Each structure stands twice: as C-alpha cells, then as structure tokens.
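#structure-requests
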Amino acid sequence: MSEIQDQVHEKPELFSVIMAGGVGSRLWPLSRKNHPKQFIDFLGDGTMISKTIERLRGLVPLENIMVVTNKLGGDLTKECVPDLPHENIIVEPTGKNTAPCIALATAYIKKRNPNSTTIVLPADHLIMDTVRFQDTLKASIEIANRSFALVTLGIKPTRPETGYGYIQADDTKTDLLNTIEDMFDIRAHRVKTFAEKPDLEMANVFLNSGDFLWNSGVFIWHNSSITREFEHNMPELYKDMMAIYDSIGCSEEKETIEKIYTWTHPISIDYGIMEKADPVFVIESTFNWSDLGSWDEVAKLRRQELNGETQDEDGLLQMVDSHQTVVVKPEHKAVAIIGADDLIVVDTKDALLICKREHSQKVKSVVDTLKRKQQEDYI
C-alpha cells in the first residue's frame, strides 16, 4: 500500500466517539462513583462532557457523535446533553478499559457506515482553543484518509510530568507529512515509540530530549484501519466486535454485548493496538490542553483564586492571609481559610479533602483505602 492512497470511495463520513465511563478518583471527593468528573462543572462554564461535545460543533454532526459510558453515565449524559440522540448513547455492561470500549463503538459506526472516519476522545479533557483544536483534527483526518494509518494527537510537554504517557516522534519527513504541514501549518511525525507514565527522572529525560510529546488519548482513523488493527493485533476482541456488529438491530443485541463483556479482558487501546500498529502518526498539537486528572490541574486553571480572588458566588468564603489556595465548597456554607498557603480544600456534604498543592496525585490512594475498608458510600 502506498503512503498516499487514492480514495476509491466517496469521501468518508465523519463520526466521533466520546469515552465517558471513567470515575475520576483523583478528583475525589467532588468526583464520585455516582457522579464522576465528566458530568461535573469544575470551572463554572459547563460540564466536561457538554464542553467536549460543543468543541466538535461545526466539524462533526451531532447525530454522528457517539458516547460510550455505563448505565448511570447514560442517564447523566441525557441530562447534560439533552439534544444528543438517545440511540447514540452506547452502554457498556461494565468498564473494561479503552480497547473494548473503542471496539464496541467501532461496531456501531461500522454498522452505520463502514466508509467512515472516527475521532475518539475522552469526555473529561479541557481544551481552550477550539479553532486550533479543530484545525488539528482536520489535519489528522486528512492523514487518516490519505494513508489509512492510525493518527494520534501529542502535546508539547511544558514540565516533567509523571502523570501522563509519552509519545516519541520521528523527525523523518515524507511527502505526505510535508503536504499536511503545508496545508494546515502544523507539525506531523511518524511515531517512533510509546512510553508509559515515567518516574520523575525519566520524565526529565523525555522533556530534555525534545522529541517526546504527552499522549493526549485522542485518536483519529478510518473504520477500515482500526478494524484491520483489531484483526491483526487483538484477534479475540476482533471476533467479539464482529459478533456485536452482527447482532446490532436484532433482538439479541443487548444479550450479545452483555455476554461478551463477561469474558472480555480489560486492556487499553495504547497497549493493545497503538504500540503495535504500523504506521502510526502523531500531530504535534499547540492548543492549551489539560486532562483535568487531579486537583492540581484544576488549581492551575482557577488562577483568580490563586491570586487571592475567590470564585465565590454566595459570598460565604473568606480567605485571610492565605495565598495560592483553592477552595471548592457547597453553596450556602460559610468557609474561612486563615493563614494557610498552597492548599487545595474540597468540602462536600459528606467528605472533606485538605491537600497540600503538588500532592493531589495521592488522592487516589485515599479512595483505594476507602474501598479496602468497604466504605462504598464515600467513594
């Protein structure tokens, strides 16, 4: 297959898959099992999932946006995005990580139109520059449609982050990449390797090397390309995906999915497909991006509070001689912070978090401890 492949079919139809099944335990106690972070408004401008869908407006038709989530997430999606067609909400019987989630969505999209290109993205990321984000997606779609390769978005790292995976980019240029870079004013690379979340020492090595990008978890591919990779690299999951494909629209559809999910092994799309596929391309993305994976990330975005100006609608939060501290509290509850710097304080009706900034990645260990103690009501 040549790198730039002529399209023998009509232009592929564009779909998007939004993965919305996570819990967000690092954002406890606001993000909970019964109300996870993708359905929360952290910054006062809409829930994470509603902003994710809004970010696609004008690029992907609403009727082509699919949300994969659990049963509770399905109900919350209907509340947050009432205009989304209910048949576009795909319910997983249980969470099995991203590879089964994407295989399930791929089966549904293949049923609608096998000549389709799909943007896969998490429901809980924050992207400020929608125009640049869409331009980057358009470049990715062009590569995916011309090469029938898999494409992902990488973020230029600004610090030695240990909470993200990394992608090593190959600087070797090709006719296709040069064409795309000229068309869209972006940098595109062939992927050399994927790297798991590093320790601090290795994160510094990645940062200083200049050829590693943060793995954004956003993917773009033609339906035939991802189907091919499932068949080659995850043959058992491919068989399950095709069984689901055959059952869609039939009386046994729900039963088939539930049965398959009883034996499907949890595995990420990165490990199951992306690390093994060839070729894979990465677009070096320049828009502001955050996976909002910890309270430290939220704190960085709430700069007004960090500068001593509280985002306090009811006037019941008092900050006295306190700096670089973020407070999240219920409405109509008086909270005072006196002489305390560099804190994250999150107060809910049944749980309180007080955390030193730069330590919020450890919040997950609190949730794990509550699980071990079988304190399910507080998770």
